[in-house]
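Give me the 3D structure for Ras-related protein Rab-3.
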Amino acid sequence: MFLFQMALTDSWLQQQPSQKDAADQNFDYMFKLLIIGNSSVGKTSFLFRYADDSFTSAFVSTVGIDFKVKTVFRNDKRIKLQIWDTAGQERYRTITTAYYRGAMGFLLMYDITNQDSFTAVQDWATQIKTYSWDNAQVILVGNKCDLEDDRLVPTEDGQRLAEELGFQFFEASAKDNINVKQVFERLVDVICEKMNESMEGDMNLMTNHRNQGIKDSPSESQGGCAC
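Predicted structure for Ras-related protein Rab-3 (227 residues):
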């Protein structure tokens, strides 16, 4: 739980969103999420589809980093998502990796019609391991599944790589709005599950310490008795 709390704090220490929604403090949790992957795999389109339910093919490459804020309800909790859209070009890599710290979840994206973007997944996974918290959750997303006729990366290859990396896997399409909401919901749910596990672990640890203290107290009292 300690790492989750630190991640939560770090997300606030970074640049804050300026939208009106960001000023609303009425939420139970705030999760910082990053979308990463090669340039032109559809990261910005994916974010706009989820946050605004809009799509346009006229997007240009993201310069540096951008963000959206969206509030969702999961398991009776109001969760504010701070979603960062990162640039995929190598020249922005130093900028984007600075935002990995404090991120609680990643969407690692490739384009199913672009073999190079799939090959680069291993490098992106290494970036996550190097610069993020150990407990950050990752979902591998094969985007543009609407372009089936142009597919170069078989679904089975994506599934196999996700298993090797220990990530969950989805194929999706920002254009046709396939699995976009489901991907984000799953990532939020996994983060919540890990938080609950951490809290339960902390509670068990506290209980064990308390029980140990109770067990030790009589013997100390008995040892001090001279009657």
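Residues 25-199 form a domain with the Rossmann fold fold (CATH 3.40.50.300). Let me know if you want a second pass.
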